[in-house]
Amino acid sequence: MGTNVVVVIGAGGMGQAIARRQGPGNKVLLADFDEKTLAHVADLLRGQGHDIVTRAVDVSSPPSVTALANTAAQLGPVTQVVHTAGLSPVQASAAAVLKVDLLGTALIIEEFGRVIAPGGAGVVISSMASHMLPAPLSAEQENALAHTPAEDLLNLPFTDPEVLGQGTYGLAKYGNRLRVQAASASWGARGARINSISPGVIATPMGRQELDGDNGRTMRAMIAASGTGRMGTPDDIAAAAAFLLGPDASFITGNDLLVDGGVVAAIRAGRLAPAA
């Protein structure tokens, strides 16, 4: 067998940190929608000694995601898949957030579930927003988010962006967690595991945009009330991903790891009012 393949979808701050940490000794397939950013990050990582292959991908396009998974499988045994690509509310419309964050993630989980190697592992980046839904979903809605074929997800009545409004991002990210839970069985049939990470406020370009946006004051209050009192770093997320991808997590699958510095705990403990 050839060199093991680590797939990192999303070349932003978290994707870079994870590629750098998981890269040594592996071939890294780095994918992103923005080809200019992709080329820049690939050059940076190659300059640090990493073996990088790049592919442009539109995660909301089934043929594009299928092609990416097939490319990964052709490069060698796909032992790690990390999906970090996503849009935040300040970056895009509610409809675009649903296409990329909900549909895109479901497509990645499905397609890489076909090619993941025995003993392999996947990590999907969700968000602490998935732990802060303004109202709980019904059992029927949760079941639909978990099991509806990916290409039909945006046709569900409760995934209408006009209806969801500001709740779009949290629902999409909660859907990611539900998809991961459901996929743990099919990935397990291949001898592989899959988990999600729910980051808090992380010092990435996306995180900075959010802090500078309409919800910036609320987010700063969350950080101040949290047990750690600081923003997270991309390396905090890379460390969590390394654990979930590695042998020490061999009995963990279908789970979500909240890496938020204690923000959700502060809300649940009553130290902070829930975000609107």
Describe the protein's architecture and organization.
With 276 residues, this protein is an alpha/beta fold. 47% of the residues lie in helices and 16% in strands. The protein has helices spanning 13-22, 35-47, 62-75, 94-115, 139-147, 161-164, 168-189, 205-212, 216-225, 234-245, 263-268; strands spanning 5-9, 27-32, 51-56, 78-83, 116-125, 193-199, 256-259. Strands 3-2-1-4-5-6-7 form a seven-stranded parallel sheet, sandwiched between helices. The model has no long low-confidence stretch (mean pLDDT 94).
Radius of gyration: 18 Å
Full CATH superfamily name: NAD(P)-binding Rossmann-like Domain
Strand order of the largest sheet: 3-2-1-4-5-6-7
> How many alpha or pi helices?
11
- Biggest sheet layout: 7 strands, parallel
User: Structural class from helices and strands?
Assistant: alpha/beta
Tally of discrete structural domains:
1
Instruction: Give the helices and strands as they follow along the chain.
Output: EHEHEHEHEHHHEHHHEH
Indicate the low-confidence ranges by residue numbers.
none
CATH class: Alpha Beta
How many angstroms does the end-to-end distance come to?
51 Å
CATH fold-level assignment? Rossmann fold
How confident is the prediction overall: mean pLDDT? 94
Described by its quaternary structure, the protein is single chain
Q: Could you tell me the number of beta strands?
A: 7
Shape: globular
**Per CATH, which architecture?**
3-Layer(aba) Sandwich
The proportion of residues in beta strands is: 15-25%
Instruction: Tell me the helix content.
Output: 40-55%
